[in-house]
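step 4 of 6: structure.
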Amino acid sequence: MNRRSPLADKRILVVEDEYFIARDLERALRAADAIVVGPVATLEQGLDLAENQPLDAAVLDVNLAGERAFEIADRLSARDVPWTFLTGYDEWALPAPYRSASIVAKPFQPDRIIRAIGALIPDKGCA
Amino acid sequence: MTELASLHGQTPLSAPPRGPLPHDSHVLAGINRILQEALRASTEEELGQLCLAVAEDLTGAAFSFFGERRDSHDRLDHIAISERGWAAYAGSDPDFSQRQLPNGMKIHGIFGQVILQDRSMIVNDPANHPDRVGTPEGHPSLHNFLGVPLRRDGETFAMFALGNHPTGFTERERAIAEELAPAIVQALLRKRAEVASRASQRRLLSLIEGIPQLVWTATRDGQWTWVSPQWVAMTGLSVEESLGHGWLAAVHPDDRDAALRFWNGASEHGELAMEGRLRHGQTGRYRWFKTRATPVRDDHGNIVEWFGTSTDIDTLRRLRERQETLVAELQHRVRNILTIVRSIFTRTVESGGPIDEISDHFRGRLDSLARTQVVATQTRSGRVDLENLIRDELLGVGAIEDDRLSIEGPDISLPADTAETMGLAIHELTTNALKYGALRHPAGRLSIAWAIELKSNSECELIVKWDETGVPAMPVPPVRQGFGTELIREALPYGLGARTRLEFRGGGVLCVITLPWAADDADALNRSTKG
């Protein structure tokens, strides 16, 4: 029997303003049997989904066409939804409260993002 | 003696009684006068004259001088000639007439023996003295002489000499003069120390008040005891307002706790340093300062007070922050574009086909991205002119603007991220036209036109229309969605909020891209169309 992907049937929000990067993320997540919520490109859309969708985890690009995704991260944290940043910024360039957050550096390989999200989601006793 | 009497003018008012009484009250009064009044003298010469006047008064000499060995030791400089000495001069030397003290005199003759033999000397018959060398022109004729060496640390460094006592010098005058000598030395050295100390203080004060730092002193618990004028000028707080803990009023409220904590370490650490904001009194704006404090210790090494400076680092901090922002943005851009390149590569390879074709496609897309990057990073604004973006793409494949190709629209520029995707879209359309469409067939025509349109809700849109006509055979639409089609139909709407229309119709491709256009960008357009 094949081992079940840790992301199987997990609802993962993707907020990324670059179309091609968003599509790559979507593709990688689907390949890991996750359910992709989004992807969306703007802060406004991201906030909407972060508040109104059932979610297990999220991948957030920090720079959304010049706007910062920190507000989305805060909303998700308030809901206890784990998230990871996907960004070209180094840790020092982020505001202090986010420096210890989970960060996947661009350019990234699909495996890395899957592993990072897998690490965020608690293993809820698979039968 | 008649000559001498006329030189002398009058008998000294306080001539002491005759007799060998060197410690008498007149001598003590003279010493006292030298020590008291000499310090008030404004110059060394004035001090010297006072000493000589006292010596003349007490000994009854007619004139006198006070000289000091030069460092070279074989020459003598005058510190002073007494008032009576100047008055007695009868020569025509213009320097003397202007009371120019003679310097660099060779140490010789009778006066020279005082220094060379290092002892006081009475010469009551100078004309027959074996060492006599004569007197300079205009010098009053010398009838008798009393010279006394002046010692510092046991070494003779100077002398004073008295001339022309009415009846010749005796041991009594010698004793008085020798009694005065230490007081004269003390007065001179004290005066010099005071002048040096004042000069040193002036230099220090000029330095403290001339440097751009704000300077202050404080006790160990941060109670300020003194502030420099720079502090007053910067903060607008007066000296009185700043003393004690008054300086805290100029500190940013958020930095006050840190500023007080700063002093907690004062007992343990040798030096304190912190960065904090101080309020500029005139503008009310806060500026960043780096404050340091160094302890001032007594002879036993105990800290008696703290000496502090606050250096304006506001501009430096701003530049540093700006630099950090620029580096962060650059990193973001570089890493983002690499991620996009990686993604485009994957897609180009996935489209399949011979390796040469994949290679051409990928290179074309990479070149398009590179062109936009170059233009975007050439200007401060990072914006890219739309017409140039289109022309560069078409000229790059050898298309010539003639009656079959028209490029027309107002002068507008796109933000870098929009230009990047638009550049790729134009590239894909151009490649397609070259392979199947208007740029391949002699009868084909291509019109590229754009305009800003005002929508009913007073928002603006940029509409770019790519219109091919005259292509004879209906081009075969790609069997599955290729890179270019996905870019136009999905990437443009996704990232830029565009509406797009892409049709492969008879006669060629029609592509209409409608982008939301920000109002301030519309202003830029109005300016250019009016101009």
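step 5 of 6: annotate
 - Residues 1-13, 525-531 of chain B have pLDDT under 50 and may be disordered.
 - The radius of gyration of chain B is 49 Å.
step 6 of 6: archive
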